[in-house]
Description:
By secondary structure, the protein is mainly α. Helices cover 81% and strands 0% of the residues. The chain is built from 7 helices and no strands.
Amino acid sequence: MAAILASLWRTVTAGVVLAxxxxxxxxxxxxxxxxxxxxxxxxxxxxxxxxMWIGLLWYFNFVQIxxxxxxxxxxxxxxxxxxxxxxxxxxxxxxxATIVTGLILVGLxxxxxxxxxxxxxxxxxxxxxxxxxxxxxxxxxxxxIIMWFNVWFVIWPNQKKVLGIVEADADAKAKAARTAMLFxxxxxxxxxxxxxxxxxxxxxx
Length: 205
């Protein structure tokens, strides 16, 4: 067991193997015919990606940003040169995976032919012909898309300046750091109603 847990990738692989075993046992007990396999698979991948994305978003906002001022200046390069670049890599690609799997999932669960109803219901809450479930998932979907856009087109470009990946003077770095922080806080704020919409679509309506 120690040999597995000593390696992150072996640990993750073991987790996937355990999930597959769990799934096979479930099939054997329930007799599920697998007719909804793809929606099940993409929901699982969507949740996994979302946990990684929002987990890192909350790490930045609840742990890293509030405590950076407490770290001595000579130790801050450990964060900016090692921890932050690695965290931002998983952060932005988890956001991409969450959006891609989520859009596929909406098509599979709500039928591709009704895809526009889900998207439109999110913009025209409870409009005629749209169920509350469509409205909840639609609003959650649009919030997720806004958050994804912020990650890739605002937070990451500015973080590249802060981390020195893109050249910038001291003033530009300070401005970029503040912009990245504000949009990260915006995503933290939006994550709360986004989760509400996702959960509501499954459990309330």
